[in-house]
Structure formats: structure tokens, C-alpha cells
Amino acid sequence: MEHSVKSERHAGYNWGEPIPMRRRRSRDAPPDELALLARQAQQGRPTEVRAFLTAVAPLVLRAVRQVLGGGHPDEEDIVQEALVGTLDALPRFRGACSMAHFVRRIGLLTALNARRRFSLRRQIAPPAYETDADSLPASGNSPAENVDAERRRALFLALLDELPAAQAEAIGLHCVLGYTVAETAAAAGVPVNTVRGRLVAAKAALRQRLAEDSGVDELLRGAS
Amino acid sequence: MKKSTPLPEDLSVLARRGELSASEGRRLDMLLGASRVERFVHALGQEFDQTGADCDGDQAALRRAVDQVAMRDSAQRNRRGLRLGVAFVAAACFVTLGAAALTVPRMFESAPASERSECTECPGTEVTRTPAAARVSGEGPSPAEPQCRQQGPEPAPAMTPSVSKSAVSGKSRVQSAGAQFANANRLRTVGHTRAAIAAYRRLQREHPASSEARLSRVLLGRILLQQGAGDAAHRQFASYVGTDPGGSLTEEALFGQATALRMSGKTAEERRVYQQLITKFPRSIYAERARERLRGLD
Question: In chain B, what residues touch A193 (CB-CB under 8 Å)?
Fold first, then answer.
């Protein structure tokens, strides 16, 4: 798909959008220490900004790594980008979800945006190498299983690039970061049923993609 | 408190977190058995969890990232403070000048122009005559006492808001950079190369400072390269590298620049660009090709 079209469609990826106030966290929920740190960081004192960044950086790294895969050469840069985005978005955090979910969502969306930039680069000049079993991170699986897993990831992430932004975000938060439907709704600032609808649509697109992929049987064998 | 039944969509997520009860586990098994998409998504989720695991060197990398971002944030706040100060001073100046511009003309407009005439006795002075109505009512000086006052400088013309042509004509006809870029890309993809070249050039002319125009230099450079226009391609790539040395396509631009130079037979410059590429991006796939070419040149 054409990059520019994609980038226009995905212009809706704006993690700075204000989150509706209607779903405040329950009073019984444990105190959100990260939110406390965030509030202090917003005062602008360097030590408090640093303390907040130190606390959230591992969460951001994990989200970025889940999208880009382990050992990506630009991982550190993307983490920096996501941390900058987090600081910029802090004034718009309304407490509808936990700060950890808010931060990880920013990490996910930043990484997905970065992936699209990389795919533009690949479109201009395809890399001279192909993924093989040896280049994949060791996970205790056989090389064949690693290749299947990598293909599954590639197929899924390519689908995220093509889906409308809202659906891609919903299935990204749900499947990649492992948010429940309610958590996804709180993080994205939409009702639960809207998230369920988006997940259904995204899974229908995935089903279609699986039907078109000739090697899908191998992938599903690996998945079972 | 009774635990609510999880949604079917959440069963996989809860399994990944290890929070599934035996009955929920059975529900998940049934779900996975019935739908291959769910099976696929469940397997993917587990793989994503594995991928996100910690690695050696994470701590150091995170410390570096935090340092960079904290430094940047601090610098940004300082700049913002400075900008606020400058804006405040500028606003104060603006208000003072505005007040002066309003007051000074009024001082010179105390009498209507028709009633002004030059005093014959004292050149450079102006005689102000009181209007007839005022004279009749007895207000103001008598007709025998014309008032002389030193003629001041010409009062500044009254300020009128400047209205730009585009504001008058309404919406500007120039397409946005994003729309032009999308259009040019579409033309390139469907194979209308000449139209795509024209569209990229128009984008660069009309929105020279936009990020789309910067990106278009690499895309246009590659088209020109394919068409054998080495010099024109070189100019495009060099312009990208010159204006955006840290851009995301710098590797491609440098490699394209070297290829264009090779096409034009400028070996010395080609060598220099390849060396620049290797120095800047030693781990790039282009660096390997550059090394190969340099070996060939040697």
C-alpha cells in the first residue's frame, strides 16, 4: 500500500488526544504511584522529571520491543521518541486509565509509527537480506518454530499498517500489549462496546488475510 | 464480592496473565478450538509477551534514553521561559506604540481642517478659527483673537488593518504539502513517471520547507536515477542530505548520491560520499555495498 495514503489514514494516531472524563478509575483502585510521579514531573523540576522518566522507561521499552522485535537497531531512538511524547502528553492525562497503561499505549503507537517509517524506507530500497532462523532472538524454540513465529508477527504487524487507525490501535492494545477490552476502552477513551466492535472488524480483516495467505496452515500449526 | 464473568475476548489476555480459573480455561480451549483467528491471536499474544522480555544492556540503554530526554526537556523549558520573556517585552512595546499612535493624531485633529489657515504674520503657524455656532453661543475665543499655534509635523496616517489578498479571496488554491505528496506518490506508483516528477517538483517549489518536500527529494532522486539523469538526481539527494543531515532517509540519500556521481563519472566525489556513508552508518546494508564499491575502485 502507498505510504502517503497510509500516513494520511493513520494521521488519527494521536496519543495526546484528551480522554473523556466519564470513566474515572474506581476509588477502590490502588493508588497510582506513576500518576503521582507524573503530577510532580509536570511541575518541571529536573529531578522529578528524571524520576518519572526512570520509572516509565522500562514500560515504554517493553511496548516498543513488542512491536519492533528484540534487538532492533533503532530501539533506543524509538524509546526516546516515546518518552518525549509521554512528557508532551502528560497535561492531557485525565486519569481514565492507569498511568502505566497510558504510557505503554504511547510506546505502542510510537513504535507502530516508526514501523511505518521503516516500511517507507524498505519501499524505497528493499533490504539486502531476508529474515532467517539464525537472525531471530533465541527463545528456546526450534529454528522452524522461530521462523513461523516471526512470520505470524510480520503478517499481523503488516495488517496493523493497513487497518484504519482506530481498529489498529484497538487490536494493538489488546493483542500486543495484552489489555482487556475494558482497559483498551479506558486507554483509548471510547466505550467498551466500541472497542468490541473494532476488535471484531480487525479480526475479520485478519481472517481475510489468513485466507489469502497460502502458508497459513503452517502458521496455524505453529500456533496450535 | 462475586467475580464477574470475563468477556470472551478477554480470556486469552487473562490466560497470558495467568489469571484464568479452571472453568474459564475450558471456555478458552473451546474458543480456540472453534476459531483459527482466535488461535492465531492467542499464539501471537504469547509471542509478543516473550518478545518484550528484558535483555542484557537494557539498563544502560534506558539510562541513556532517560538522560537524553531529561536534558532535552530541561532545555525546552528554558527556551520556553526565554520566549515568554521576549513575548512579554514585545507585547509591552506594542501596547505603548499603539497608545502613542492613537494619541498623537488626536492632538493635531483638535480643529477641523476647513477651519485651518496659515497665519500671514507668522509663517509656519496655523490660525484656528472657532466655528460660527460656537461664536454665536459665546463659547470660545472672540473672532478678533485668532489663535496661533506652531504647526507640528504631519500627523501619522491612521492605521488601517491590512487585509491580505488570500484572506479576501477566501480559501487558498495551493494544495497542502501532504495532498501534493500523496498525489505525486500515487502517480509514481501507477507508472506515470513524468507526471510524478512534475508533481514532486511542484511540491518542492510550493512547500519548500515541508517535511514532504524533504522526503520527495529522495523519491525524485531515485526516479531521476532510473531515468539516467545523474546530475539532476545528485542535486536532489545532495539537497536532502544538506537540509536534513539527520533525516530518516539519509542512508538512502547518501547511497543514491554516490550512485548518481558514479553515473556522472565523478569517481573522486563518489568515493568521498561512500566514505561519508560508511562513517555515518557503519552497520547499514548500504555501508557493506559501499565498502564493496570502494574495494572495486581501489
Answer: none
